[in-house]
Amino acid sequence: MPPISILVFDIFGTVVDWHGSIVREVQAAYPQVDADAFALAWREGYQPAMQRVRSGERGWTRLDELHRGILDEILPRFGLGHLDEAERAHLNRVWHRLNPWPDSVAGLARLKTRFTICSLSNGNIGLLTNMAKRGGLPWDCVLSAEVFHAYKPDPRVYLGAARLFDVSPAEVMMVAAHQDDLAAARDCGLATAYIERPMEFGAAHLKDVSPDPANTHHARDLIDLADRLGC
Amino acid sequence: MPPISILVFDIFGTVVDWHGSIVREVQAAYPQVDADAFALAWREGYQPAMQRVRSGERGWTRLDELHRGILDEILPRFGLGHLDEAERAHLNRVWHRLNPWPDSVAGLARLKTRFTICSLSNGNIGLLTNMAKRGGLPWDCVLSAEVFHAYKPDPRVYLGAARLFDVSPAEVMMVAAHQDDLAAARDCGLATAYIERPMEFGAAHLKDVSPDPANTHHARDLIDLADRLGC
Predict the structure, then answer these.
(1) Would you call B126 and A166 a contact, using CB atoms and an 8 Å cutoff?
(2) Most buried residue, A91, B91, B131, B231, by most Cβ within 10 Å?
(3) CA distance linking residue B130 with residue A115, whole number of Å
(4) What is the pLDDT along chain A (231 residues), one digit of tens a residue?
(5) Where are the alpha helices (DSSP H) in B45-154?
(6) What are the φ and ψ backbone dihedral angles of B146, each rounded to 5 degrees?
(7) Which of A116, A129, A141 is closest, CB to CB, to B116?
């Protein structure tokens, strides 16, 4: 087995806290809204919207646009159908302003000393870059579905990341808080590390974070992963 | 005029010293070779190789492969036709190991405090990422011709960079040591900053670094550019 040289990271839920960040912004701007339900409804539209792109029903469309379509759909259900274009555009960019989990910046900084660390997210390049700059995420390279014009779990994303660096899939490790993302990466020959994020959907909706023995590593958070990888 | 928020940088010659870096490696590994002539011959094949891709004569091919094709062509002329596959592959990766100019890391760190800073190079993503990690270039995002499957000065590269960030071309400034790169960026509506790199082709082949009044800025180096932009 060649040694792992590249770590690629899922972002939403794994490195940043999308639920908590959206709840905080929505509570502050629209106190009358059930912010927890709003965040969950927005995220619920995520897979179906990407599925329309994956299936070919819709041509390549970046995530900012998919997020905006879902937002426009759910706003009336939360009594926010009156928001104007500028307010909608600003709210949609909350996905660029998601906060890292408390361990993310320190964990990535340690992992970066031994590995090339890249995002590998369905978020678009501009979104990921703005998020990283604001939150201090020290990527060596911002990789995105947008580079490959394919959304995870399409194999082109995982295999494409290895190909960009001219390494075999086994030299790349996918790091994610989602077993389905890791299973797809594993099917492509990547190593995998699961990160426990029990609070991904908020404290009121604790997530099952049981280990899957098929993963190469199972870590509490990114600092724990750095410990396990000897960084 | 909207304020500039994104700086995109040409790399070879502008941020890193390709000539000096190649000369040093070739002198150390193959002392019998005229390293200055070797570096110039390798770089001379660069535009014609990309032109075959630009013209459509050849499908999308990343720069690592173009560099390798030129290398295989010139090796016999320099008495190195006997190099085996591993030696050729290693030598070809010298483009991943180019050293920053002495002002580059400090200048970029200052520019990064006020702007989003991205590479925008014909080098491929893996090359640019390896180079940045080795040399400490603090990019917010590694952008490459490889993202757009088009080589500068194709307008898709300059316009594509603005589109990724959802800004108008006037909010992006191209920074380069080559007037033709800047002219093409300007034609797309980008602001431009010329960087003097009189030693790009080595001390024996000083380059004309006269100002062109069409550029938005003209700077001695990246620290001088940071001064001019108030960073």
Answers:
(1) yes
(2) B131
(3) 11
(4) 789 999 999 999 999 999 999 999 999 999 999 999 999 999 999 999 999 999 999 999 999 999 999 999 999 999 999 999 999 999 999 999 999 999 999 999 999 999 999 999 999 999 999 999 999 999 999 999 999 999 999 999 999 999 999 999 999 999 999 999 999 999 999 999 999 999 999 999 999 999 999 999 999 999 999 999 999
(5) 46-54, 63-74, 85-92, 104-112, 125-135, 145-148
(6) -60, -30
(7) A129
Q: State ipTM.
A: 0.96
Kindly state the tokens that stand for A199. 């609070």
Q: How confident is the model over B75-131, as pLDDT tens digits?
A: 999 999 999 999 999 999 999 999 999 999 999 999 999 999 999 999 999 999 999
- Residue A184: both structure tokens together: 């797809």
Give the whole-angstrom CA distance, residue A150 versus residue A165: 18
**Which two tokens mark B87?**
């030696």
How many CB atoms neighbour CB A32 within 10 A?
9
Residue A201: CA count within 13 A, CB half-sphere:
13
State the residue for tokens 């094709």: B69
Place of tokens 């300059």: B158
Q: How many CB atoms lie within 10 A of CB A88?
A: 15
Residues paired with B121 in a beta bridge: B144
Q: Which residues of chain B does A130 touch, with a Cβ-Cβ cutoff of 8 Å?
A: 116, 165
Of B166, B219, B159, B221, the closest CA to residue B184 belongs to B159
Residues A14 and B173: their CA atoms lie apart, in Å, by 33
The candidate with the shortest Cα–Cα distance to A112, out of A214, A190, A5, is: A5
Structure tokens at B48: 């014609």
Specify the residue for token string 């590479």.
B119
Judged by CB atoms closer than 8 Å, whether chains meet at A129 and B146 is answered as no
Q: Is the peptide bond before B211 cis (omega within 30 degrees of 0)?
A: no
Domains of chain A, residue spans: 6-17+99-228, 18-96
The arrangement of strands across the sheet holding B217-219 comes to B141-144, B116-121, B6-9, B172-176, B191-195, B217-219
Is this model's pTM higher than 0.90 or not?
yes
- Min distance A209 CA to chain B CA atoms (Å): 32
Closest partner residue to B140 among A116, A129, A146, by Cβ?
A129
How far, in Å, CA of A211 to CA of B95, rounded? 42
Whether the CB-CB separation of A215 and A192 falls below 8 Å is answered with: yes
Which residues, listed in sequence order, are joined to residue A219 by a DSSP beta bridge? A195
Specify the DSSP class assigned to residue A43.
Answer: H
The 8-class DSSP code of residue B93 comes to G
CATH for A6-17+99-228 (3.40.50.1000, 3.30.70.580, 3.40.50.720, 3.30.365.10): 3.40.50.1000
